[in-house]
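Data deposition worksheet. Section B asks for the primary sequence of the deposited chain exactly as it was used as input, without tags or linkers unless they were present during the calculation. Section C holds the resulting structure in token form. Section D is free text for depositor observations; keep each observation to a single sentence. Incomplete worksheets are returned to the depositor.
Section A, Depositor: J.P.
Section B:
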Amino acid sequence: MRAHVGKCLRDWYAVGEPDHKQCALAAMLATGSDDFSDILVPLLTDPDRQVRVATYQAGEAFYPESLGTDWRRVVDGWDEESRADFVYEVIHRGLMADIGESLAIADPSEKVRAQAIEALSWIGATEALTRVVNALDDAALETALPAFIPDSIPSALRGRVVAANRRLLAREVDPLARIRHLLQAVEFDDADTAVEMMVELKRLPAPPLDQYADHAIDQAIKIVRQGHPQWASDWLAARLLAGTMWGDQWQTSLLAAPRQQVDELIDRLATQEIQPREASAIRTILSASVTLALARQVFDRLCEVQRAISSGGPAGNPAWIWFDQLRSLFRALPADCLPKSRLPDCRNPFRANSIQNNSEPQFRFWAASAPTPPNYALRYPTSCGNHCADTLRTVSRKSSLTPHSMMPTGRMRRLRWEESAMPKTSPICAG
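Section C:
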């Protein structure tokens, strides 16, 4: 019967269609027999890793005995990559911790030992890990350290693991590499590392750094913030303004800037042409410091710059650049902090006398500074839209503007004319 089944499986494997081959391999692996080692060994040592992995994954499990009774000698003759795949599969999918332990201690390849330790960590084989760590000398443990999963390290071994990481840290001089060792120390339950993190962050050079630097820096800042939030915010703000870091993802790590710095940054936007990256940094810092008073201050400077544009003429007027910079900042501010009191409140019945003669430029440039969405008042016949339209018509009666001319720039989200905020009965809607 064994010979008959073996012939059937070989004939099946000989079918040229890939799916039939994969099914035949699954059946061969399920037998656990070494009758098919002449087919399996070439596949498991193929230079193409995809071929090797596909062979292991053809069946539910892989039995080393499929390679022959002396399978260990067979595996020892494979190249490093093939042995690393072998130890991964027999531990991850076969839960054969004894094989992983043996290879983690005795295999000559650093990569194979690291793969075995990582796989033992993944399956939670703490007893095997304990024996592996105890069998490694200090140098071998330092080399294998990145393969350990911190949560799986037995408490009895943490002292030795922490000491190994500290030795690696002491030999490292690059600030970014030292930050990564300190992050690993935190995972190994090392003592407080926040002060050391601060030292290395201060030493961090200007870009370019490697592609994973932002992640390491972000994790370091989160650790420092737990005990030194102001230091982390000040360091990050200085790096943003210096142009050595960028991106609005850092805003959550910033605290409110000092009042003097806020005034200086707004003044720079209103009087100087700022490079885009620096302008983005200023927006990020001020958005983290936003208050109603700051929003009013920005809006007042917008009106001031607009008056300078009106009096100076458009040709070569640098105030247009300042206006654009302030408008971009205004658009970046959270909507809840904007000074809604400068415009008629849509939640109350509108009164024509509430718009004074000087309200037209305030209304016009508030609307011009607000981002999407577009014209609700003229496009949607809602009570909110009716109120907006009525407001615009009243403004037009007191100025040279028309509702239609105001609406293309009068984007209404910042005005917060929301249907849900309207009273159930409104004189505007009733009219």
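Section D:
The chain is about 60% helix and 0% strand.
Residues 2-201+218-241 form one domain.
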